[in-house]
Design brief:
single chain, mainly alpha, Arc Repressor Mutant, subunit A, 4 domains, two-stranded parallel sheet, elongated, RNA polymerase sigma factor
Length: about 425
């Protein structure tokens, strides 16, 4: 009889195995049944079987293969009941029965083929442009990250029912559009790959600078995006922009510990304790950036952003930052992937390299940009530049507007402090406390 303490230990082990193996499991099943929704159901059935059996029998030596064998036995039973693919199923069923549950390694050799190819196909399917951005993010975290619906909902601060509906609709859309389970080739690859990279980047950004809620960061999302990026780099080692994205995420992640103070308050880049930056992640980021460069061709948007992050990482102190080089990189980025947000960041770099008046001149050209109308960082940057020029009344107005626009409580508190600071400077009084 299983000891009571063994049950929670087994459940924790199963949860860890699921996070690691679920994407591979679902990917292999999709190749067999050609339906993402059905593949996920079969994978969940295998998980339930593990929850029922492992607390008593113990975790198998090869838990991923055990789950795969269990799920594929159930897939074959289901397909037989539906009387589909009879000849293929009979052959496959005979091979599985010969291998048996006791020889999971043989089962993988018989049925799986190249599981890494299946995993790459699943990545491109989950991130297919036929889906909305929100659906791609939710489906990717569900299928490739192994996150539960409630975990995704909690991470993005939306109702669980909303995430569940997105996932259901996404599966239905893929089925109705008859999206092939394959890696695109030729000219289509670049467009489809950009969709995959965008999803991973969006997940990371939501974790790195949460758009809403009480916390500045959600580390679990950053970690998941970085894991997905590393997996993709392993699957597509000859794609420079994949390495560029990984480099960016590695270097950005290196600052995580220094980005918040003791009470969770934001700490701006120039005020961070750089001794708290993770040197291992920085080195990994530099290595990924070098791999992207070695593969040749002009740097893409993610590689350029990684180069900007690397410039910050090389500076031992804020004063050593090569802002002119960063401004030049932003100019390249604006030419490669023009957007008002890139221009806003370029304005910050220009202000640091050539003075706040130079930066403000560019920022003022962006104030009528419709896409930035609700973007709190536009008045934040403008307020900062006005304050540096001694125009405290105008700066305070900009910080007030930014505080009203942000949905993140930590950022709002910081902006309200900036408003108070401007008022004190304008009146010539010292701030309280």
């Amino acid at each position: 009889m299983t000891e009571p303490s063994a049950r929670p230990d087994a459940h924790r082990a199963i949860e860890a195995v699921w996070r690691i193996e679920s994407a591979r499991l679902i990917a292999g099943l999709v190749r067999l049944v050609r339906d993402i929704g059905l593949a996920e159901e079969l994978a969940q059935d295998a998980l339930v079987a593990a929850l029922e059996q492992w607390p008593g029998s113990g975790v198998p030596d090869n838990p991923g293969a055990w789950l795969m064998a269990t799920a594929k036995h159930r897939a074959i039973d289901l397909l037989r009941r539906r009387e589909r693919l009879a000849r293929k199923i009979d052959v496959l069923g005979h091979e599985l029965e010969t291998a048996g549950h006791g020889a999971p390694a043989d089962v993988e050799a018989v049925v799986d083929g190249d599981i890494e190819d299946d995993l790459l196909r699943l990545v491109f399917t989950a991130c297919h442009p036929v889906l909305s951005t929100e659906a791609r993010v939710a489906l990717t975290l569900r299928l490739l990250g192994g996150l539960k619906t409630e975990e995704i909902a909690r991470a993005f601060l939306v109702p669980e029912s909303t995430v569940a509906q997105r996932i259901v609709r996404a599966k239905k859309t893929l089925a109705e559009a008859r999206v092939p389970f394959e890696v695109p080739a030729g000219p289509e690859l670049a467009d489809r790959l950009s969709s995959v990279l965008e999803v991973i980047y969006l997940v990371f950004n939501e974790g790195y600078a949460a758009t809403a809620g009480d916390d500045l960061m959600r580390p679990a999302l950053c970690a998941e995006a970085l894991r997905l990026g590393r997996v993709l780099a392993g699957l597509m080692p000859k794609e420079p922009e994949v390495h560029g994205l990984v480099a960016l995420l590695e270097i950005q992640s290196s600052r995580s510990a220094a980005r918040t103070g003791p009470e969770g308050e934001p700490v701006l880049l120039l005020d961070q304790d750089r001794s708290r930056w993770d040197l291992l992640l920085i080195r990994r980021g530099f290595a990924a950036l070098e791999r992207a460069a070695v593969l040749g061709g002009p740097p893409g948007p993610y590689a350029l952003q990684a180069a900007i992050a690397a410039s910050h990482a090389r500076a031992r102190t804020p004063e050593e930052t090569d802002w002119r080089s960063i401004a030049g990189l932003y100019e390249q980025l604006a030419a490669r992937a023009p957007s008002p947000v890139v221009e806003l960041n370029r304005a910050v770099a220009l202000a640091m390299a050539y003075g706040p008046a130079t930066g403000l001149e560019l920022v003022d050209t962006l104030t009528s940009e419709p896409s930035l109308a609700g973007y709190h960082l536009l008045p934040t940057v403008r307020g900062d530049l006005l304050a540096r020029l001694g125009r405290y009344e105008e700066a305070g107005q900009e910080f007030t507007r930014a505080a009203a626009l942000t949905r993140n409580a930590r950022e709002r508190t910081l902006l309200e402090q900036r408003v108070a600071d401007c008022e004190h400077r304008r009146s010539g009084t010292a701030p309280a406390g």
